[in-house]
Write a structure and sequence with these properties.
This protein is α+β, with helices and mostly antiparallel strands. Helices cover about 20% and strands about 30% of the residues. The chain is built from eight helices and 17 strands. The strands form two sheets. Strands 1, 2, 3, 4, 5, 6, 7, 8, 10, 11, 12 and 15 form a twelve-stranded mixed beta sheet that branches. The longest helix is centred in the middle third of the chain and has 12 residues. The termini are far apart.
């Protein structure tokens, strides 16, 4: 933990995207974006920490001033957002099956020894049994979902947009891994980020097969990416603020101590697909959540502030919900 490096991205005065290393209350600007610096490290076989250290450029900046000025960006971006892929895995945390079963369970199901086992519980049980194989190597594959591209990745303090057709919108506080693919198709982990994997749980609750639809929403990560080792346990708190008051809050825990899958196993089952090893790609892969305000019957509204913080980061991840107006969508034949 002591040797971990915290990196953000900011908009420079001339409009360029540059990375900056967190130095307490100050930010040390670097010479390029985190994507460009990570690609140098991955292509040249250098450690990312060495590349970052060699790229320091200019006087330090005030962290809070960058936030207040609206210059803080998502901590990772791609020059072409279509090549930044947002994906994730579910039912990865001990206890994560409970809110999902509550969401998808049917009234009148059998109880006791003859109780119906849902697909949710079945996949969760597989993870408990085989998500951390002894001796390493691939274990059982987790639930997997596609979330979008860099076009729907929102910066910290930026609004998360909820489309007019959405039935609901709810936060999902979790950790995410951030990865880059070098020129030879090798995958490198840049680091870890705090994330809000925002989803439409009412749509999902209608039918489990609507899970894919429910995930196609905005997401946010940051403010920082931590470069270094992920501790066995990460502790945090997630809260919903409305009109200056806290309407809901809950502690959450992550890290492998609280997971039924190892990070290595989740990474294997994502990157085993060649389509996710295309040179130049960036990946943000969400590791799953076990705590949801939706499970406590909280319905988020336009203007609500979602605040997620944990002991791995120096700043909270904050976003507000913005309900978008209806739009006409159609297809025109060429």
């Amino acid at each position: 933990m002591k040797n971990n490096i915290h990196v953000v991205q900011i908009r420079s005065e001339n409009g360029a995207v540059i990375a900056a290393q967190v130095k307490g209350e100050r930010l040390q600007p670097l010479s390029a974006s985190l994507y460009d610096l990570a690609l140098v490290a991955a292509n040249e076989g250098r450690s990312l920490s060495d590349v970052l250290e060699a790229s320091a450029a200019g006087e330090t900046l005030d962290y809070n001033e960058m936030i207040e000025a609206g210059r803080l960006l998502a901590p990772i971006t791609h020059p072409d957002p279509a090549h930044l892929l947002l994906t994730g895995t579910g039912l990865t945390h001990l206890g994560s099956a409970a809110p999902r079963n509550k969401m998808h369970g049917k009234e009148g199901e059998k109880s006791g020894p003859e109780k119906t086992i849902t697909d949710t519980q079945r996949i969760f049980d597989w993870g408990v049994e085989g998500g951390k194989p002894v001796g390493g190597g691939p274990g059982v594959q987790p639930e997997w979902f596609y979330k979008g591209t860099g076009h729907t990745l929102r910066a910290p303090y930026q609004d998360i947009q909820m489309p007019a057709f959405a039935l609901d919108g709810g936060e999902e506080a979790e950790l995410a891994g951030v990865y880059i693919v070098n020129a030879q198709g090798r995958v490198f982990r840049i680091g870890y980020a705090l994330s809000n994997e925002f989803s439409d749980h009412v749509t999902e609750k209608q039918n489990y097969l609507y899970l894919a639809h429910s995930k196609l929403r905005d997401a946010s990560i940051g403010p920082e990416i931590v470069i270094g080792e992920l501790p066995e346990e990460v502790r945090g708190n997630v809260s919903i603020h409305r009109d200056g008051s806290v309407v809901w809050q809950h502690a959450f825990a992550s890290g492998e101590q609280h997971m039924c899958h190892s990070i290595e196993n989740l990474e294997h089952h994502h990157f085993k697909y060649a389509t996710f090893r295309v040179p130049g790609q960036l990946h943000v892969h969400f590791f799953g959540a076990a705590i949801l305000s939706f499970a406590d019957a909280v319905k988020l509204q336009h203007g609500d502030e979602m605040r997620i913080e944990c002991n791995l980061m120096t700043r909270p991840l904050i976003n507000r919900i913005k309900v978008m107006p209806e739009e006409s969508v159609g297809v025109t034949a060429l």
